């Protein structure tokens, strides 16, 4: 972290505001509740927006640390989920053959 004023937040403050607004929307609430079974926690987006504005106004070192830590934890959370399927290196040998017909004799 550069303390010389050359540092910029990882995202523009408008991006944090848009994420916070999206998180609080009814559509996101319903989707998150359906998928996870709990209300979405939008507090981190609000804190990130406040830290970004604090940085823009006062160049606060604490706001800078807060944004860096938040982005770091967000990236780590996204990376902890591995692939569900193993990507294949080449197609199956019989990929060009027609699919078997369904038997409707019964």
Explained architecture:
The chain is mainly α and 106 residues long. The protein has four helices and no strands.
Total E-strand runs: 0
Q: Sheet bearing the most strands, described? A: none
Give the SSE string.
Answer: HHHH
Structural class label? mainly alpha
Count of discrete alpha- or pi-helical segments spanning 4 or more residues: 4
Helical content stands at 40-55%
Average pLDDT metric = 89
The gist of it:
The protein is built from 4 helices and no strands. The protein has 106 residues and is mainly alpha-helical.
Helix/strand layout:
Layout: H1 13-23, H2 26-36, H3 43-58, H4 61-79
Task: From the structure above, extract its key features.
single chain, 54% helix, elongated
């Amino acid at each position: 972290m550069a303390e010389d004023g050359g540092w910029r937040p990882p995202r523009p403050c408008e991006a944090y505001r848009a994420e916070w607004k999206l998180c609080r929307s009814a559509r996101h609430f319903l989707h998150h509740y359906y998928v996870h079974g709990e209300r979405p926690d939008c507090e981190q987006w609000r804190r990130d927006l406040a830290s970004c504005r604090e940085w823009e106004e006062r160049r606060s070192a604490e706001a800078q640390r807060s944004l860096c830590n938040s982005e770091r934890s967000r990236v780590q959370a996204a990376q902890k989920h591995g692939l569900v399927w193993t990507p294949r290196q080449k197609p199956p040998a019989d990929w060009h053959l027609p699919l078997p017909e369904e038997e409707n004799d019964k």
